Amino acid sequence: MLVAKFLPTAVLLVALATIAAARSMESRQHGAEKQDYQPGLEKDMIVKPIPYSPFYKPAGKLLGKVALITGGDSGIGWSVAIHYCLEGPDVAIACLPEEMEDAAGNSTPLSGRSAVKQMKRSDVVINTASIGAYRGSKGAADYSASEGAVVAFTRSLSSNLVEKGIRVNAVAPGPLWTPLIPGRYPQELFCQTLLTGVCLILAAFQTAENVAQYGMDAPMKRPGEICELGPAYVFLASFDSS
């Protein structure tokens, strides 16, 4: 009787929270903010990333599995870690504080190589790339190149492991609101020719106003939220995608 009595109230509270989160995601504004270090820190962000949406309904899709998440302390990895924990596996988080291009271009193959040694049939590798791997990014040639390397590595690793029954995929998101964005990174690169004829690459670092416009050129006129990526990783890790 007590459960029946309080159930309508609980359902109402969940519904209100869901509606509030949906409205927040669609209408909230990312203002002018900037951090003078890279990567940025979430604790110093004015507008915090949203790691989880109450729209998501866990269904035990990863019960009995073990997940190792690199970079699970912030950004996309943080959202993935939350969604995985809700789906029932044992989760381990590894944090690799490296430079952006090194983390993508070097640590992805190294992490993958170490993990594959412990894997068996029906296990899964999921890498994180970027849309920059396919269309490039003005002022971030090194980042785009490293993400292209992740895509190439993913395809090659998939070809090598498919006969062992191990699936390898990558998620390549567009603009997302993460601590990386307000951090200090070049908005534009330009070349200044010296008297010796050598081209010196200079960086024009972004301003807080540039950050406020981040993602506005996307079809939805906003950057994506990390909570919108977590379910994709759940799908790729589950038997639904086999």
Overview of the structural elements:
The protein has helices at residues 2-27, 75-86, 100-116, 132-135, 141-161, 208-212, 230-237; strands at residues 66-70, 90-94, 124-128, 167-171, 186-193, 199-205. With 242 residues, the chain is α/β, with parallel strands linked by helices. The chain has a domain at 45-178 and 221-241: Rossmann fold (3-Layer(aba) Sandwich), CATH 3.40.50.720. The strands form 3 sheets. It has a two-stranded parallel sheet with strand order 1-2. The protein has a two-stranded parallel sheet with strand order 3-4. Strands 5-6 form a two-stranded antiparallel ribbon. The longest helix is centred in the first third of the chain and has 26 residues, at 2-27. The radius of gyration is 20 Å and the shape is globular. GO terms for molecular function: oxidoreductase activity, acting on CH-OH group of donors.
Task: Characterize this entry briefly.
This protein is an alpha/beta fold. It has 7 helices and 6 strands. Residues 1-22 form the signal peptide.
CATH H-level name of one domain... which superfamily?
A: NAD(P)-binding Rossmann-like Domain
**SSE succession:** HEHEHEHHEEEHH
Number of strand elements: 6
**What is the CATH top level name of one domain?**
Alpha Beta
Shape: globular
What is the rounded distance between the termini?
Answer: 43 Å
Order of strands across the main sheet: 1-2
Nearest-integer average pLDDT = 79
Write down the CATH topology of one domain. Answer: Rossmann fold
Q: Under the CATH scheme, which architecture of one domain would be assigned? A: 3-Layer(aba) Sandwich
Q: How much helicity do the residues have?
A: 25-40%
Low-confidence stretches: 1-18, 98-103
- Assess the beta-strand content as a share of residues: 5-15%
The computed structural class is alpha/beta
Number of helices: 7
The main β sheet shows up as: 2 strands, parallel
Radius of gyration: 20 Å
Keywords: Oxidoreductase, Signal
GO molecular function, one term: oxidoreductase activity, acting on CH-OH group of donors
Family: Belongs to the short-chain dehydrogenases/reductases (SDR) family.
Protein name: NAD(P)-binding protein
